[in-house]
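#structure-requests
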Amino acid sequence: MRAPWTTLLHTLTVLWLAGAPLHADAATTFDAGQRQRIETRYGNVEVRESADSTALLYRGEVLHTITAASAALYRITPQTQREYILVQAWHPGLYCHHFYLLLDLPEDGAAQVSKEFGECTELNGAGFAGPDPVIHLKEPAIAGKKTAPGVIDYVWRQGDISPLPAAPGTCEAVALAAKSQARRADADDEASTRRVIGSGRLQFMSSPSEGCRQAGVFIIPGDVVNISLHYLDYTYVRYWNPRRGKEVEGWVRSERLAEVN
């Protein structure tokens, strides 16, 4: 039998995959090598550099001009009738050099150019989320930062380039799954307020799990809270702190709550 938190994570995995675009394959799908001229099925794409700008040409005509010292072209291996060319533009700077554009080349020749994106990142590969191309860009390494640089995924969809949402962490995952399965307090024939009982502080959790404590957020015996959800041994509550003049909310242990007389 699965532990409750394992069931929650399994449920969230299903919810996440059903409700968000799938992460593209991290494997690089570029044609080998960077170039300044690429032949596609629908015409050639070229880079033409000048003193203060770089022009992108398609079928011999200027398609777009960028403020960059130079640019390299990468052809993303096509999976549909459309062709995609990634432009990695370069400008001088002490630490920050690159930004990117994506060229969408359909069969009818009506090319689209994305807005500039991914400034100060390094190219880390490309893939597809369904029919949509996804570009993997690596964040720069920062001196003194203990964690490794992350990867930001940009997806081209319906004429716009935007970051893919990050997958939730463990506590966020448990909270999302719990709220989808919780029993609402207003469905019960009971008051919507409770009083804290027992001894010591009652810790707030960001999800119904002891490993997801909200640092420094707690209530004490005698405090009165509003309840909204019940899940397993936890209740979702809201508490108005009169001293700080703000409301806090989260999951607490149900056994520490009693009806208000």
